[in-house]
Write a structure and sequence with these properties.
Blueprint (H helix, E strand, L loop, with lengths): L2 E4 L5 E4 L2 H13 L3 H11 L5 H21 L5 H18 L13 E6 L7 H12 L3 E4 L6 H11 L3 E5 L7 H12 L7 E5 L5 H7 L3 E3 L2 H12 L1
Parallel strand pairs: 3-4, 3-5, 5-6, 6-7
Antiparallel strand pairs: 1-2
Helix pairs in contact: 1-2, 1-3, 2-4, 3-4, 5-9, 6-7
This protein binds 5-hydroxybenzimidazolylcobamide.
The site of 5-hydroxybenzimidazolylcobamide (HCB) has 38 residues, from helix 3, helix 4, helix 5, strand 5 and strand 6.
Length: 227
């Protein structure tokens, strides 16, 4: 509900609560319309921090799209349009990300496992780790295990972030950990796993160092493990 208040000069202005802004952002994603998403982002950016807009507004909308897709209320072309609109919203906010003044010495390789094309969440995580001062190498989506290992060796990385969005590709996270062990790199490289089907207990089961539910948590866990 919009509220009316008066500004310094007694002029009436409309104010919107945080929850209303989150809902407008989420509804814009569900509409699958890029223009609507960009308008909602423009309205929210004066009131909310960029990570808040992404996590609590846009990502919440994407989750709703997933639920509607599951229930047969939206179809794949809608999901693709919503994903494009989400990407446009995130791109718009890139320059607003709070930059950390301290440069972390740690290097993080971040990618989505082979067979999985979902990369929106992984890319948000990369951006937020980068703006938090980490040196990040985003190796994209549908990434073979060998490419994870090659990039970790090439960059002398201290951590790897492994994203998987489908139950059918979750196993790929375990395969990267096994390859790290085979290469004798496991003691040197911390492992973070993420993505909707991953959980804390899955992370423990496969021997990862942590699970991150969202990008804010990914930054906090990386700081805990590396700094
Ligand atoms: Co896609 N898809 N999809 N999809 N998709 C899911 C994932 C389902 C759950 C939808 C459903 O059925 N309910 C489902 C998977 C079911 C399962 O588990 N088996 C599914 C399916 C089945 C498919 C296809 C097979 C559909 C088809 O072709 N019939 C196909 C996959 C093809 C393939 O990969 N080989 C497919 C395709 C697509 C697109 C292309 C249309 C599009 C992806 C576009 C893109 O990423 N460039 C898409 C999308 C958008 C989704 C949903 C709706 C949203 C995903 C998303 O972007 N969420 C998703 C439903 C859902 O997840 N609820 C659905 C928003 C982001 C911000 O959240 O969870 O990705 P996130 O990331 C978070 C968090 O997990 C964490 O932080 C991020 C930021 O907060 N995190 C990390 C993520 N990675 C991390 C890494 C770290 O190191 C640390 C934290």
């Amino acid at each position: 509900m919009n509220r009316w208040s008066q500004d310094l000069y007694g002029k009436e202005v409309v104010t919107t609560t945080k929850e209303e802004l989150y809902k407008e952002l989420s509804d814009a994603i569900v509409s699958c319309k890029k223009d609507q998403v960009l308008a909602a982002v423009e309205k929210a950016r004066g009131e909310l921090e960029a990570p808040d807009i992404i996590e609590n507004g846009l990502a919440a909308g994407m989750n709703e799209v997933g639920t509607l897709f599951e229930r047969g209320k939206l179809f794949l072309p809608h999901v693709m349009m919503a994903a494009e609109a989400m990407q446009a919203g995130v791109d718009e906010l890139k320059d607003d990300m709070p930059e950390s003044s301290e440069k972390a010495a740690s290097v993080i390789v971040n990618g989505t496992v082979e067979g999985d094309v979902h990369d929106i969440g992984k890319s948000i995580v990369s951006t937020m780790l980068q703006t938090s001062g980490f040196e990040v190498y985003d190796i994209g989506r549908d990434t073979p295990v060998a490419d994870f290992i090659a990039k970790i060796k090439e960059t002398d990385a201290n951590m790897v972030g492994i994203s998987a969005l489908m139950t059918t590709t979750l196993q790929g996270q375990k395969e990267v950990i096994e390859a790290l062990e085979e290469e004798g790199l496991r003691d040197k490289v911390k492992v973070m796993v993420g993505g909707a089907p991953a959980t804390n207990s899955w992370a423990k089961k496969i021997g990862a160092d942590c699970y991150a539910e969202n990008a804010t948590e990914a930054v906090n866990k990386a700081k805990e493990l590396l700094l």
